[in-house]
Specification:
The chain has about 110 residues and is mainly α. About 60% of the residues lie in helices and about 5% in strands. The protein has five helices and two strands. A two-stranded parallel sheet has the order 1-2. The longest helix is centred in the C-terminal third of the chain and has 19 residues, at about 95-114. The radius of gyration is 13 Å and the shape is globular.
């Protein structure tokens, strides 16, 4: 999954510099994640990026990737992984999750626009 994470990072960094988000499907396509199961592979690679960012004290770049089906927030796996990393303590959906995502996104955008 590290190889796919390496494909995702520059696409996510470009979106972060633009102060924008990207849907999982568009991210998979833009990064050239191979089929089959490109969305699933993308999700797993996003978790690798989260581990890397957390280990280096960086905001979670994976916050830039959002789910089409979840009103502009990431899938529950984002919140579950953030919990596993000790960065988030709450449910994987709902207002608390949306607030955590919004705050993390602001940190990412600020870090990549500098």
């Amino acid at each position: 999954m590290t190889a796919i994470a390496d494909l995702l990072r520059p696409v996510l960094e470009d979106r972060a510099r633009a102060g924008a988000t990207i849907l999982y499907a568009h991210l998979a396509h833009a990064a050239g994640v191979p089929s089959p199961h490109s969305i699933h592979k993308t999700g797993e690679a996003l978790e690798v990026l989260m581990e890397q960012d957390a280990a280096h004290g960086r905001p979670l770049l994976a916050a830039v990737a959002i789910s089409k089906a979840r009103d502009g927030v990431p899938a529950p796996g984002f919140f579950q992984k953030a919990s596993d990393l000790g960065l988030y303590f709450g449910p994987d959906r709902g207002p608390q999750a949306a607030t955590f995502h919004e705050l993390e996104l602001e940190k990412v955008w600020a870090a990549y626009r500098e």
